[in-house]
Amino acid sequence: MSKYIDLLREHQPETAKKNTKKKNKTVGKKRKKTDVSTENPYQEQAVTDAEILDTMEALLEEQDTGTSTHTDEQFEDELLAEETEQPKAESNPNPVEIHKTETSSQAKQQKPALENAYGFDISAWLKRVEQTLASMFSSVHNDEAINIDILNEHLSILFDQIQTTPNTLDLLELEINKHTKNTMNTSHHADLVQKSVMMMLYSAKVGLQLKLQLQELLPHTVAAMLQHLGMATISENIRQKESSLSDDEINQIKQSGHTALGYLNNQHIQHEQLHLAIRDSSERYDGSGPKEQKGHDIAWIARLTSLLSMFEALIHFRPYRERLLPRDAIRNIVKHHKKEFDPEMLKALIESISLYPVGTYIQLNTGEIGQVINVHAKFPLRPTVYINMDKYGHAITERKIDLKKQPNLMIQQCMYEEGLEKVTQSHQSTA
Asked: Domain 73-352 carries which CATH code?
């Protein structure tokens, strides 16, 4: 468990790491020892729900130190514009609490097959969702009506599949990862479509982690996906600007929430959770938001959307900056923003991601490189990996490896696809 904690933390000096390990060892002594199977050397790494919660508590109780290390001015402008302004609605629903119920490039093109015994075509489903979202953002841009029922139908299909196929969200995350760069070139609102898709994935993950019933989760997932509708009225040149935003451009983004609420009212679109998500997602759990609402005085969907929106911004691919891995985004939030978000939701988000997320690439101690295709909840350090490259990026015979069953294989590093070239080049330069 101490390895899990150390990996989730910010990279620290060696002395700090030793202190952290010492602290975790002390905590571990308080736990009851369990029998370890000699047939599986990694049996002791199985993580119980209680241990995960202990880890999250430790992270959430850490004191903030220093300031954000992110120096990208464009990113800071985006967060300032998207997260600090509070839209005011003329007529919106009241907050409602939800209760729980050969070459490197050739090798990279070879993808693991999606295993689904029930015949659900995740790729085709995701394309339909992306097309629906693109059409919606285009309609908002042109001040035309949108039909949210279509999105409800898509999500109902997904949630039905989740009930019958346990690994549906893993397969979806893998497919989303494949679409990440391709989506950026499909429409003028491709960046907004991508944000909506990521909000969908993590809304579902966090909602299920919080034990919400699927019928409860559906309208809130829709709200999270469309919370940034107003951004469709902002010029793509501003949304994708590589240099710092001007004061006028920042103000336009700030006004996008007001614009979205006005649009929904003018189009007579009644969707309670969506109104709440747009209206109150700038509020913060510690009362530091525009209206100084605190804790559970903030609507459930607004608390969820505010957290996921920041998380998504950190892991979002943009042409002018690198995206963070989910675990690095969590480090950023826990270290600098944890008091701003509902601690229960933050725990659920942390528990929902992995140190080695589905769709990312890892390099083993053998030098071989592959893509993570499945994560074991009880063995977070031992995912299932689809290996198809050597350390130089050359294609090799593809094979699937369950690291839970391969005690001699260890993960040395994790990266997105765009980071593969740096890794393979470094090995080529030392060859």
From this structure: 1.10.3210.10
